[in-house]
Amino acid sequence: MNRIAKMPKIELHVHVEGATTAEVFYSLSEQNNIKLPVKNIEEWKKYFEFKNFAHFINVYITAVSALKKVEDYAFIIENFYKHQASQNIVYTEAFLSASFMVQQFNQSEILDAIAYGMQKGSEKYGNQINFIPDIARNIPDSQNDVLDFVIEGKKRSLFIGLGLGGMEQGFPPELFEEVYAEAKRNNLHIVAHAGEASGPDSIWGAINKLNVERIGHGVRCLEDDTLINYLSKHQIPIEVSPTSNYCLGIVKKNENHPIRKMVDAGLFCTLNSDDPAMFSTNLENEYNLLAKQGFSFEELKQLNINAINASFLSKEEKNNYLSLL
């Protein structure tokens, strides 16, 4: 739809590493002498055909292993600005996989590289991006180092919040309660993936134990009527990513996405691409997907307005973006 392409868009749930193409990761692996579990680029692309969530996490970790120099992060961050600008995404809140960064880089050097990538990207493409580093649940021992990293980055105006991603099953929100409380005390915004690979209990944990401001994915809230009512009453924003849900088997490919049920239930939904390069999608495609499933343009526009209102921008900044629509 041409109107979707022209609409200035806002995105709140997208991973920088997941927006980096297979070709870029393959090139970086060659430059950094990293052995991937494939013989050539064609096999590497096929490797991205995910079988399930656990396989996806394995692919993600393998891809990120190609990022061996701080300059690699500066490069992919600058490219991320280009990726977003090419879709007329004027504002983004994006995740960085911080658990991997803190394990292998000097904190000051990686923060310098992130700052450089942000400066170059903003200068070249003119869009605004705020970053939210996240803890990989499946590397829980990294959580305190990630928090220190995020607090230091906030001092340098690089980061606005703390997130929680990675393998949801087996790593409940309760494991990260103390770190999230400390993040809140340091005036960081806090969000978490929940209700994707695990059910409603994960969402309840994110709300009650972590006191999150937004829920990443959250589609499995539909399994709990009490939770639906709570989310509707409190208007907790939910970052929905349809193609991601299809690719990872959270939603069956022959079914319409449950975001329709969520919207009809009065939930505060936003639309996002999650890991666009890995799922062969982008934000524009997500809007077109919902249009094919019966969403009107006005409903799609409202999802975009929701993203502005759910963002961590100031009231003045929100009003500036709303005036563009």
Please characterize this protein's 3D structure.
By secondary structure, this protein is α/β, with parallel strands linked by helices. The protein has one domain: Metal-dependent hydrolases (TIM Barrel, Alpha-Beta Barrel). The protein is 50% helix and 14% strand. It is built from 16 helices and 8 strands. It has helices at 2-6, 22-31, 41-47, 53-64, 70-85, 98-104, 107-125, 143-155, 177-185, 200-208, 225-234, 242-247, 259-264, 283-292, 297-310, 315-322, and strands spanning 9-15, 89-97, 128-136, 161-165, 189-194, 214-217, 238-240, 269-271. Strands 1-2-3-4-5-6-7-8 form an 8-stranded parallel beta sheet. β5 (189-194), α10 (200-208) and β6 form a beta-alpha-beta unit. α5 packs parallel to α7. It starts with a helix and ends with a helix. The model has no long low-confidence stretch (mean pLDDT 96).
Present the secondary structure layout.
Blueprint: H1 2-6, E1 9-15, H2 22-31, H3 41-47, H4 53-64, H5 70-85, E2 89-97, H6 98-104, H7 107-125, E3 128-136, H8 143-155, E4 161-165, H9 177-185, E5 189-194, H10 200-208, E6 214-217, H11 225-234, E7 238-240, H12 242-247, H13 259-264, E8 269-271, H14 283-292, H15 297-310, H16 315-322
Parallel strand pairs: 1-2, 2-3, 3-4, 4-5, 5-6, 6-7, 7-8
Helix pairs in contact: 5-7
